[in-house]
Design brief:
The complex is a heterodimer. Chain A is 23% helix and 34% strand. In chain A, strand 9 and strand 10 form a beta hairpin. Chain A is built from eight helices and 20 strands. Chain A has a six-stranded mixed β-sheet, with helices on both faces. By secondary structure, chain B is an all-alpha fold. Chain B starts with a helix and ends with a helix. The chains are: A alpha+beta, B mainly alpha. At the A-B interface, helix 2 of A face helix 9 and helix 10 of B.
C-alpha cells in the first residue's frame, strides 16, 4: 500500500482550485449541472443555495467523494478528477464534524499525520500547534463526547489544518452552533482561513454566514450556478430575479427600463429611479424589474402627491431600526427601514424611494 | 369546561411518586428475589452443606476438571468460529453488491429459526456417521468407513458455529448499518488508505457490536446442552455433568458443578465488560453508505460461487429435517437417502394421544410462561425507564441476572428449592408438577422480554407521561393510553422471542421434566434414542412450523396495530 503523498509535496504553490463544467446526475435527477467555479489561493468562496440546490454534492465532488459524470476538478492546473480523496491532500470539515468518537482530541487531530506515516514526536508537536492555533491548547486528552459544539467544530478545523492541506473544504461549518456562538465563530473562522492561505471552499445555506466570511459567493439553484461574485456584487447588482430574490430582502417590482433609469408605477403614481445594471447586461431589458430594498426606501406619515401610499401591516423592531411592512396598491408589499419608530400598525403612510441606485434585473 | 384540580392534588399529596413507585416495584422485586435469586442462593448454600466436602470432591474428580476445561475450550472456540463466519458475512452483505446477494441475505439468519435440539439432529442427519453428506463423500472417495465422526469438541463447535454465528452476523450488520459513513470519508480525506481506515476507524467502531455478540455466543456455548449431550460421545462438559450428578443422586456435587458453571459465566461476563470498559461513545444512527458493486469479473464469480455454497449449507439442515420427517422409521440404514417415504409419522403425531401430548404441553407451557413474562417485564421495564426510586438499581440487576446464569444452573436451582412445601422458607412444591417448566421458561426469558420492552420505552419521550398527567389523566389512564402503546413493539417482539424460546426449550426441560409435562424437545430426544428418526424429524418440522406461525402472527398483529 503506497502512503498518501505529503500535502504540498511537489506543489508548494498549489494554485487555484477549479471546478470546470462539472455535472453530476443521480438517475434522472441532475444534482450539479455544468458548474464552473474557481477559488484562488487564500481566497474564501462560499457556495450558497437552498437545500437541494446541489451545493453539498459540489463540495463532495471537489473533495473526491463523488465523481462528476462530466467536467474536471483541477488544482493549480493539475487534473485531480480521478484522484481519490485520500490522495488529494485536502482538508475537509464535515457538517457534523465527523470526529472519531473512539479517539481523544489529540488522536483525532493527529490522524491525518498518522496516515502519512509522520513520526510520533513530530506528530505530537504539530498536533499541539494545530490545537493551539484554534484556541484549544491543553485539550488534547479530552474525549470527543465531553466537548461543546463550538469546541468540536474547532477540533474538526484543527484536524483539517494539521495536514497542511492544499485546499480547505467546509460543509456548513457554522450550522450546528447556537446563534451567539455563531456570530463569534464567523470572525474567528474567517481569520483562521485567511492565515492558511490556500483555496477555501465552503458551503452554506445561510447568506449572512456567507456575507460575513466569504470573499466571493457562488449562488446555486437546482444545480446551476446563478451568479458568482463578491457579496456586494450579488447584493447590489444581481443578474436575475432569482438572485435578487435570494440575496437580501427586497420587493421585486415590474419597471420600464430606460437604461440609466427605470420607471416604476404602483397604483397611479409613477416614479423614475436610478438603476445599476448587472455586469455585461444588455443596454435595455424588454421585461424589467427593480429591486427595492428596505434601506433604499423612506416612510413618512405626511403624504405628498408623488409618494406611494399604503397601510402598515407589520412593525418589527430590529435593533437600531424599525422595519415596517407596507402594503401598497397593485398587491405590492415592501419592507421599509426607518430610524424613527413613531408609526404604528394599521396607519396609512407614504413611501418614497431614496436616491438609489436600485438594482435592475431582466424578467 | 370545569376542572377538578382539588381531588387530583389531594391524591398527589397522599401517594408520593417515590412511594407509588415502591407500591408497584415491591411485588415485582419480591417475585424476582423468590424465583431468580433464592434458587441460585440455595444451590450455592447447598454446595457448602458439608463444609468444603463437595468442593473437595469436585476438585479431586478428574472428570469434573476435564468438564470445566472442555466447557471453556468449547465456548472460546465457538466464539472464534462464529466470529470467523459472522464478521466477513456481515461485511460482504453490508458493503458489497453482487449477484445472489438478496438470496444470501434472506437465508443468512435461517439457523436462528431452528430450535437448539432441532439444529443438532439436522446435523446428525447430514454429517453424522450415517448422514447424507457423510455417505456421499464416502461413496465418492470409495471409502470403507465414514470419512469422519461427528463426535467430540470439533463436532460441538461445528454445530455451535452454525447456530450461533447469526448473533455475530446480526450485531455486526446492525453496527455497519448505523455506521456513520462520514467518519470513513473523513478518514480518507485525511489521507488514510483502505486498510488504515479498516484498522483505525471501522473495526474499532464495530468493536462494541463484535464484543457484544461474542459475549452472547460465549454465554450460549457455555450453557449449551443439546450439542454436547448428543455429540459428546463420552466427552464431559459442565452442563451434562450436572445432569449426570443429579441423575446419580449426587446433589451436593451437582450444586458445586452448577456453582462453577454459573461462576464461569459471570467471569466471562466480567471479562467482556472489562475489555469494553473504555468505551464512552455510541454509534450515531446516521445513514450508512451505499453498497459497492463488485466490478472485477473474477472476484464477482468467486463471490457468487461462494455465496451459493453458503446458501446450500444454510438451507440443507432445514431441508434434511423435512425430508427425514417423511422417512419410514427404521428403514434408513446404510443408504445415502432414506429409501421409503410415508405420511405415517405425521398421521401418528396427530392421532395418537401419547404422541400428541408433548405438543399441547409445549404450547400451553409456552403461553403461560410468555404471559407471565409480558406482565412482569412490562412493569419492571416501566419502573426502570421512567421511575427514579431507591431500589431501581436492584431491580435492573434482578432483571438481567437470569441472562448471566446458564439454563442448566437455573433449572438445578429450581429443582433444589421447589421440591417441597415449606411456607416458613418460602418453598412450594413445584418439582414433579406441570408448573415447574413454565416457571423455568419464565425465568429464562425475563432478560429477553424486559430488554425488548425497555428499548421501546426508551424511544418514548419521557415528557409524554408528564404531559398526560398534566392534562389530568389518572395513572391508569396514562398507562393504558400512553405508556402501553409506546411499549407495544417491545412487548410484541419480546413476547414472540419468549414464546419461540419456550416452545422449543430443551436445556432446562431435560433437568426438570416429568412424563406428564414432557415438552416436544424431550419427545424428539426420546424418539431419537429409539432410532425413530422419522418421528423425531416430524416433531422437529412441527416445531419449526410453530415458530413460523408465531412469527407470522406477531408480524400481522403488529401490522394491524401500527
Amino acid at each position: 500500500m503506497t502512503a498518501a503523498p505529503r500535502a504540498r509535496d511537489g506543489a508548494p504553490d498549489s494554485g487555484a482550485l477549479s471546478l470546470n463544467g462539472v455535472t453530476r446526475r443521480f438517475g434522472d435527477y441532475t444534482a450539479v449541472d455544468n458548474l464552473s467555479v474557481e477559488v484562488g489561493r487564500g481566497e474564501l468562496l462560499a457556495i450558497v443555495g437552498a437545500s437541494g440546490s446541489g451545493k453539498t454534492t459540489t463540495l463532495r465532488i471537489a473533495a473526491g467523494y463523488e465523481s462528476p459524470d462530466s467536467g474536471t476538478v483541477t488544482l493549480g492546473g493539475a487534473d485531480l478528477t480521478r484522484v481519490p480523496p485520500e490522495r488529494r491532500g485536502f482538508g475537509m470539515v464535515f457538517q457534523h464534524y465527523a470526529l472519531f468518537p473512539h479517539m481523544p482530541v489529540e488522536e483525532n487531530v493527529a490522524f491525518g499525520l498518522e496516515a502519512r506515516g509522520v513520526g510520533k514526536a513530530e506528530r505530537l508537536a504539530k498536533t499541539r500547534a494545530a490545537l493551539a492555533s484554534v484556541g484549544l491548547e491543553g485539550a488534547g486528552s479530552r474525549a470527543i463526547q465531553s466537548l461543546s459544539g463550538g469546541e468540536q467544530q474547532r477540533v474538526a478545523l484543527a484536524r483539517a489544518l494539521v495536514i497542511e492541506p492544499r485546499a480547505l473544504l467546509l460543509d456548513e461549518p457554522l450550522s450546528n452552533l447556537d446563534p451567539t456562538l455563531r456570530q463569534a465563530m464567523r470572525d474567528d473562522l474567517r481569520a483562521m482561513l485567511r492565515r492558511v492561505g490556500v483555496p477555501a471552499l465552503f458551503v452554506t445555506h445561510d447568506q449572512e454566514d456567507a456575507f460575513a466570511i466569504a470573499d466571493r459567493i457562488a449562488l446555486l439553484r437546482k444545480g446551476k450556478l446563478l451568479q458568482c461574485g463578491t457579496p456586494e456584487e450579488l447584493y447590489h447588482a444581481p443578474i436575475s430575479r432569482e438572485v435578487a430574490a435570494f440575496i437580501g430582502r427586497g420587493a421585486i417590482v415590474p419597471a420600464v427600463d430606460r437604461g440609466a433609469t427605470a420607471m416604476v408605477t404602483i397604483g397611479s403614481v409613477t416614479r423614475e429611479l436610478n438603476v445599476t445594471r448587472p455586469q455585461g447586461a444588455a443596454a435595455r431589458f424588454e421585461d424589467a424589474y427593480v429591486v427595492m430594498r428596505p434601506d433604499a426606501l423612506r416612510i413618512s406619515r405626511e403624504s405628498t402627491g408623488s409618494a406611494w401610499r399604503g397601510r402598515v401591516t407589520n412593525r418589527r423592531f430590529a435593533g437600531g431600526v424599525v422595519v415596517y411592512r407596507v402594503r401598497l396598491a397593485d398587491d405590492v408589499t415592501v419592507d421599509v427601514e426607518s430610524t424613527s419608530g413613531e408609526t404604528r400598525e394599521d396607519e396609512t403612510v407614504a413611501v418614497t424611494p431614496l436616491d438609489g441606485p436600485f438594482p435592475i434585473v431582466p424578467g | 369546561m370545569k376542572l377538578r384540580p382539588q381531588r387530583q392534588s389531594s391524591l398527589r399529596m397522599r401517594v408520593t411518586p417515590q412511594r407509588q413507585s415502591w407500591l408497584i416495584a415491591l411485588p415485582v422485586i419480591l417475585l424476582l428475589l423468590w424465583s431468580v435469586v433464592y434458587p441460585n442462593a440455595a444451590v450455592i448454600a447447598g454446595s457448602f452443606e458439608n463444609g468444603l466436602g463437595h468442593w473437595r470432591e469436585f476438585a479431586a474428580s478428574p472428570s469434573d476438571r476435564e468438564a470445566l476445561r472442555t466447557s471453556i475450550v468449547i465456548s472460546v472456540a465457538s466464539v472464534f468460529a462464529s466470529l470467523a463466519i459472522g464478521v466477513p458475512l456481515a461485511f460482504l452483505l453490508g458493503r458489497f453488491e453482487f449477484p445472489g446477494r438478496r438470496l444470501l441475505r434472506a437465508v443468512a439468519t435461517l439457523p436462528a429459526a431452528l430450535p437448539p435440539l432441532v439444529g443438532v439432529i439436522a446435523f446428525l442427519f447430514l454429517y453424522g456417521e450415517s448422514g447424507l453428506v457423510t455417505r456421499v463423500v464416502q461413496r465418492i472417495l470409495h471409502m470403507e468407513e465414514a470419512p469422519w465422526r461427528l463426535k467430540g469438541v470439533g463436532a460441538i463447535v461445528f454445530v455451535h458455529a452454525y447456530t450461533m454465528y447469526v448473533y455475530v452476523f446480526l450485531f455486526v450488520s446492525a453496527g455497519l448499518e448505523r455506521f456513520d459513513a462520514t467518519l470513513d470519508e473523513a478518514a480518507s480525506g485525511l489521507g488514510a488508505s483502505t486498510s488504515q481506515r479498516l484498522r483505525r476507524v471501522t473495526l474499532p467502531l464495530l468493536m462494541p457490536a463484535v464484543a457484544g455478540s461474542a459475549l452472547l455466543v460465549f454465554m450460549n456455548a457455555l450453557g449449551s446442552f443439546s450439542a454436547p449431550y448428543v455429540f459428546g460421545g463420552g466427552l464431559r462438559v459442565l452442563s451434562t455433568q450436572i445432569l449426570a450428578s443429579k441423575t446419580n443422586g449426587a446433589m451436593g456435587l451437582a450444586y458445586v458443578e452448577t456453582t462453577v458453571l454459573a461462576l464461569s459465566a459471570v467471569a466471562g461476563l466480567a471479562l467482556f465488560r472489562w475489555l469494553d470498559r473504555k468505551r464512552k461513545y455510541t454509534l450515531a444512527s446516521k445513514g450508512g453508505r451505499a453498497r459497492r458493486t463488485i466490478r472485477s469479473r473474477r472476484i464477482q464469480l468467486l463471490t457468487t460461487v461462494l455465496s451459493a455454497v453458503v446458501v446450500v449449507a444454510l438451507v440443507l439442515p432445514h431441508l434434511m429435517v423435512v425430508l427425514v420427517s417423511f422417512a419410514r422409521d427404521g428403514a434408513w440404514t446404510t443408504q445415502v437417502l432414506p429409501p421409503e417415504y410415508t405420511f405415517e409419522n405425521y398421521r401418528r403425531l396427530f392421532t395418537e394421544s401419547e404422541l400428541w401430548r408433548p405438543i399441547t404441553n409445549s404450547v400451553s407451557m409456552a403461553i403461560i410462561a410468555t404471559a407471565a413474562n409480558l406482565v412482569v417485564c412490562f412493569l419492571a421495564a416501566y419502573l426502570i425507564v421512567f421511575r427514579r426510586f431507591k431500589g431501581r438499581g436492584l431491580l435492573e440487576l434482578l432483571v438481567a441476572l437470569p441472562w448471566a446464569i446458564p439454563a442448566t444452573a437455573i433449572a438445578l436451582g429450581l429443582a433444589a428449592t421447589f421440591n417441597r412445601n415449606d411456607l416458613a422458607t418460602a418453598r412450594i412444591l413445584l418439582v414433579g408438577t406441570f408448573w415447574i417448566l413454565p416457571v423455568a421458561y419464565f425465568i429464562r426469558d425475563i432478560p429477553l422480554v424486559a430488554s425488548a420492552v425497555e428499548s421501546s420505552l426508551r424511544q418514548m419521550d419521557s415528557s409524554l407521561e408528564d404531559a398526560a398527567r398534566g392534562l389530568g389523566a389518572s395513572w391508569l389512564l396514562t398507562m393504558r393510553r400512553v405508556i402501553l402503546p409506546a411499549a407495544r413493539p417491545g412487548l410484541v417482539a419480546g413476547g414472540l422471542l419468549a414464546a419461540v424460546t419456550a416452545v422449543g426449550e430443551f436445556v432446562a426441560s431435560v433437568v426438570l421434566y416429568t412424563h406428564s409435562n414432557r415438552p416436544i424437545s424431550m419427545e424428539i430426544l426420546a424418539q431419537l434414542r429409539a432410532l425413530a428418526f422419522g418421528t423425531a424429524a416430524a416433531y422437529s418440522v412441527l416445531l419449526i412450523f410453530l415458530v413460523l406461525l408465531m412469527t407470522l402472527a406477531a408480524r400481522s398483529f403488529e401490522e394491524r396495530l401500527a
